[in-house]
Specification:
Elements: H1 9-29, H2 42-45, H3 64-68, H4 72-79, H5 82-89, H6 94-103, H7 114-118, E1 119-124, E2 127-133, H8 136-140, H9 147-150, H10 164-176, H11 185-196, H12 201-205, H13 218-222, H14 246-270, H15 276-298, H16 302-312, H17 321-340, H18 351-354, E3 371-374, E4 380-383, E5 393-394, E6 410-411, H19 435-442, H20 451-454, H21 458-467, H22 480-485, H23 503-507, H24 529-536, H25 545-556, H26 561-565, H27 576-583, H28 593-607, H29 631-634, H30 684-706
Antiparallel strand pairs: 1-2, 3-4, 5-6
Helix pairs in contact: 11-14, 14-15, 14-17, 15-16, 16-17, 25-28, 27-28
Length: 708
């Protein structure tokens, strides 16, 4: 452990004297009960000469060593975290040097945007420079005005003997002086999201910086390697680094998810062009909305439902800065209010979400519900999904005359591709080092590959129904659809996916090789220690052409009889050579077209020809059209819960305002198509969706006819 700096005896006596004078001021100046003179607000304190480069006033930074005088155990934990070690390593990374060069930063640790989030900065010799990595004051506020206030318990008192009135005043004054106290979850946690959402558009679009930590989750991070809960050590109590209580975890989760949504909207408000940054922020809003919507299903909090409705009705696009900032501020206020009215005991329903599972009210119980399979007579058959292999075989006979449906042929599966023994972490984990590749991904069709399922396109719904997949389950991580069309994060298989085809879909599940593969000099190529270690821990060697051909064919060349029978394209005409040229996001030379075609041809020959199957059809009168998702309106793009799905938002004018409902005259609706027949094979969910679709059709017709 590095040696901490200690104050000399004269400094120590000076600080003690300041503490005594402060205590006397409380007793004498206030009559023992009134509040002290008001100090500048946090907002005013953060307005300073170097605000372009720092989030905290560098003239008021005391450094981590000053905090470590009392919080020795917390300091020791901090020294080993990436927050601290980045001070010596971050600026030496090739990616950091590239970003600095593109942005025109001469020195990363001097007056540059890097100081805002990666360092703690002070003014020394009239120059702004980094003095440490992310430290105490990065989260709790620059400490000059509050460190002694926060550390004073009254004349001759310590933490255990401080009077309640003195503590109340001490807490009040430290807050007014700019301290973000740990007990105030929103104020402390927003420090995390200020940086983990990357608040600078140019850093991303021009510099190639990552687009933020989309997988950032407050409970997971705060209870991980940065946890420093040693409060008992100050009173001679336990030296254990205690995890937060279940009740506090729930509050952290609730506030963190709302903060993610708030700061994603703030990021979108900063976007000025339709480029990587705006697309990343739109994605963040979509993902954050999925999590907030899940919370609104799990717990009965009207404020959550109101937030979901507000964001769904907003236009989350470039050029809507004022509206988005107002919406973000509204969410922040609701976040604070929710925390003030909760102690965590009433939020136990969030525990499954914290564990990465589906909310209790939305779990598809395999043992009760199973997969929906249509039998030879067009009737549903409930089967039990006990594993990820075949579940049942459906007869090849034709449908009955009464129903007119022709069932799909073959086994129902949960996966088309071999499952990895390693865990996945999600696409964003790679963006920190691969900013250029991340920017490419946002413009590639793979990024949007799950959207057709969220939007419930007719083809996707029809294929899912015929295969035996419930429409509401298409976007879940454990569905066959997302095996190829989405990025599944391990531990969240029973939740909606948040991204289309991402890095791990091709490069392999990265939980075990993500960190090891960074080791070594890039110039060593395939001999680099990190490259060798990653291959041993599940990384696919895509530099080998046969491996690349196998990975692409696993999704683009379909030979599963049941999926083909349900009407899914086979991909037999897929042009591997042309496609690889379009998706190239690496520096090494691309193989010739003949080499690419030969490698893919060998993989197709190994897999065998596309089988000939009978094409299935839905029972007569059954709808193959699902309802529209939220993506078309606000960019949130995630399917609502099956049991808490709201009606699609009202149609909107080009400026984003909702169209008014008018009913002053009758409208001729005689040209509407007949309502589809409802048969016994149709699940209740789909009947409700048919009704919803009809209402939307009627509404659109009324608005179209009656608008001036």
């Amino acid at each position: 452990m590095a040696t901490r700096r200690h104050r000399n005896s004269s400094e120590e006596w000076t600080h003690r004297l300041i503490g005594v004078l402060y205590s006397l001021l409380i007793v004498v100046g206030t009559g023992g009960g009134a509040s002290l003179a008001q100090m500048p607000s946090q907002e005013l304190k953060e307005s300073h000469a170097f605000s372009e480069f720092t989030l905290r006033d560098p003239a008021k930074v005391m450094t981590a060593e000053a905090c470590g005088e009392c919080h020795a155990l917390e300091y020791e934990v901090w020294e080993d975290t990436p927050h601290a070690t980045g001070f010596k390593s971050l600026h030496r990374k090739a990616s950091a040097e590239t970003i600095a060069e593109r942005m025109g930063f001469k020195l990363i640790k001097r007056e540059s945007l890097c100081l805002k989030c990666h360092y703690t900065a002070k003014v020394e010799k009239e120059q702004l420079r980094a003095v440490s990595g992310v430290s105490c004051e990065s989260c709790h506020g620059a400490g000059r005005d509050w460190i002694e206030v926060h550390n004073n318990y009254g004349p001759g008192a310590d933490r255990t003997t401080e009077t309640p009135e003195h503590r109340r005043l001490r807490v009040e004054q430290s807050r007014e002086a700019g301290m973000r106290r740990p007990s105030e979850i929103y104020d402390t946690a927003r420090s995390c999201y200020e940086c983990h959402t990357v608040p600078e558009e140019e850093l991303v679009n021009r510099g190639g910086h990552s687009t933020g930590s989309a997988g950032f989750e407050l409970v997971e991070r705060s209870q991980g390697d940065i946890r420093h809960n040693f409060l008992g050590s100050l009173t001679g109590g336990s030296r254990d680094n205690r995890p937060s209580s279940p009740e506090r975890r729930r509050l952290l989760y609730l506030s963190g998810r709302l903060l993610d949504l708030e700061y994603s909207l703030r990021g979108m408000a900063r976007a000025t062009t339709d480029a990587t940054y705006s697309k990343a922020m739109s994605r963040r809003v979509r993902n954050a909305m999925a999590e907030v919507r899940a919370m609104s299903v799990a717990v009965d909090l009207p404020a959550l439902a109101a937030i979901v409705g507000d964001v769904r009705s907003a236009s989350v696009t470039v050029g809507k800065s004022a509206e988005l900032l107002a919406l973000a501020s509204s969410i922040g206020k609701r976040n604070r209010t929710l925390l003030e009215g909760q102690d965590g005991t009433q939020l136990a329903a969030l525990d499954p979400l914290i564990a990465g599972e589906a909310p209790a009210a939305d779990v598809l119980a395999d043992e009760d519900e199973g997969e929906l399979v249509i039998d030879a007579d067009g009737n549903p058959v409930s089967t039990t999904a006990s594993n990820s292999t075949a579940i049942t075989t459906v007869s090849a006979g034709g449908g009955s005359a009464g129903q007119g449906g022709v069932p799909a042929v073959g086994e129902v599966k949960r996966s088309l591709r071999p499952r990895s023994s390693h865990a996945t972490v999600g696409p964003n984990a790679c963006s920190g080092c691969h900013g250029d590749q991340n920017a490419w991904w946002f413009d590639d069709p793979h990024f949007n590959s799950a959207n057709r399922f969220f939007d419930r396109s007719p083809d996707a719904v029809r294929i899912a129904r015929l295969y035996g997949i419930q429409i509401g389950a298409m976007t879940r991580g454990d569905s066959l659809c997302m095996d190829c069309h989405g990025s599944v994060v391990s531990g969240k298989e029973r939740r909606d996916v948040l991204d289309g085809v991402g890095c791990e879909s091709c490069h392999g599940a990265a939980a075990d090789w993500l960190e090891p593969h960074k080791e070594g000099d890039e110039s060593l190529g395939r001999k680099r220690p990190g490259f060798v270690a990653a291959l041993q821990k599940g990384k696919k060697d895509l530099e080998l052409l046969p491996t690349r051909a196998t990975e692409c064919a696993s999704c683009h060349y379909i030979t599963d009889p049941r999926l083909l029978s349900a009407g899914h394209p086979s991909g037999k005409d897929y042009d591997f050579a042309a496609s690889v040229g379009k998706i190239r996001h690496w520096s090494r030379p691309l193989e010739s077209a003949s080499q690419l075609s030969q490698a893919y041809g060998a993989e197709v020959a190994r897999r065998g020809p596309v089988p000939s199957v009978r094409l299935a059809s839905l029972p007569e009168g059954a709808s193959s059209v699902g309802g529209g998702g939220a993506a078309g309106n606000s960019g949130t793009g995630s399917s609502p819960s099956r049991r808490a799905r709201n009606l699609a938002p009202r149609p909107r004018d080009p400026d984003g305002s909702a169209r008014p409902i008018v009913s002053e005259s009758l409208v001729d609706l005689g040209d509407l198509p007949p309502f589809p027949e409802i048969d016994n094979s149709m699940p209740v969910e789909e009947v409700l969706m048919l009704l919803r679709d009809r209402l939307e059709m009627l509404y659109e017709r009324v608005v179209t006819e009656e608008r001036p």
